[in-house]
Amino acid sequence: MVRVGIIGASGYGGGELIRLLKAHPGVELVGFSSRKHEGKPLSSAWPQLWDKGLFATLEEVLEQADVVFLALPNGLAMELAPRALKEGKRVIDLSGDYRLPPEVYESWYGIPHKSSGLYREAVYGLPELHRKELGGARLVANPGCYVTATTLALAPLAAEGVLRGAFVVGLSGVSGAGREGEGTFFAEVNENLKPYKVGGVHRHIPEMERNLGRLLAQGRPVRTHGPLGEVRLSFVPHLVPMTRGILVTVEAEVEGNWSQKALDELYQDFYAQEPFVRVTEALPETKGTYASNRVDVKPLFEARTGRVMVFAALDNLVKGMAGQAVQNLNLMLDLPEETALPKEGLWP
């Protein structure tokens, strides 16, 4: 039984990790920490979870765990990961600290990188593209919700070598901003829909472009630190008055002549063996993936204009965060990939 621990367990990602790991037959959750709730019962942060355990200290979690999940704000994992690795732990980082080259990270996040030497060791944790790399990984950079949805929406086109760019409209539930997210008060989000961080400034843009650039240059499987092609995206995210869920609507700039039949065949073939990606007949909707680790994807050829469009939906706290981290854990430990991860969602 592998011992796992969570550092930063009072945020939404940490709470979902606890829920999923408590039901995992191959691991033992030996500790979870939060500076805010240290020494308090789990229910002080998470009334939906039934557990008499107390929030531990960071040191207690590091001492007991073999694998550590870092569910921390950007800029903090880079301080803890070197220590955890030095102590022989394996690390899954849910922040953006190891997803990008340090110089790119510093430019887009505005945070000096304090352990830039570890970037070359980090494996990018999107199993659908990096599965072969994850088995031996010591440090995994777990991608987030918008990036996962957008990458999987466009991956088949990029791997086919025909993707040149895209216009991406993203819609996110308010939990995507985190438990203390600015501008997420009920009075401000209720009956309100608003775009934010538009004009090519959203910090997830370079991550999306690198993912698709790898596919253009390498095909599948993909190596984190392999060659890159060039893809340019416009990304327009919106905050939606719902609790959780991500929906992206993508207009893809592609080469060649396409039809609905050709798109369907491409996407069905690309995702045929993927346990958590479903190519749908109907247009995806966020409620259909609620509380599941599934991504629903639908390519669409608009015959009137000749445009190629793709829609993708997922739960931002599961496949877009904690569920993906557990999926990575399973691959790191050579366990069945689907262990403890729900494919079905909740409805209504």
UniProtKB/TrEMBL annotation:
GO molecular function terms listed in the Swiss-Prot or TrEMBL record: N-acetyl-gamma-glutamyl-phosphate reductase activity; NAD binding; NADP+ binding
Main location: cytoplasm
Domain called Semialdehyde dehydrogenase NAD-binding: residue spans: 3-137
Location in the cell: Cytoplasm
SMART domains: Semialdhyde_dh
Active-site residues annotated for this sequence: C145
SUPFAM superfamilies: Glyceraldehyde-3-phosphate dehydrogenase-like, C-terminal domain, NAD(P)-binding Rossmann-fold domains
Pathway stated in the Swiss-Prot or TrEMBL entry: Amino-acid biosynthesis; L-arginine biosynthesis; N(2)-acetyl-L-ornithine from L-glutamate: step 3/4
PROSITE patterns linked: ARGC
Record bears the keyword Cytoplasm: yes
Swiss-Prot/TrEMBL catalytic activity: N-acetyl-L-glutamate 5-semialdehyde + phosphate + NADP(+) = N-acetyl-L-glutamyl 5-phosphate + NADPH + H(+)
Cross-referenced Pfam families: Semialdhyde_dh (PF01118), Semialdhyde_dhC_1 (PF22698)
Cellular component, GO annotation: cytoplasm
BP term (GO), one: L-arginine biosynthetic process
EC assignment: 1.2.1.38
Record keywords, A-Z: Amino-acid biosynthesis, Arginine biosynthesis, Cytoplasm, NADP, Oxidoreductase
Family: Belongs to the NAGSA dehydrogenase family. Type 1 subfamily.
HAMAP family linked: ArgC_type1
Protein name (database record): N-acetyl-gamma-glutamyl-phosphate reductase
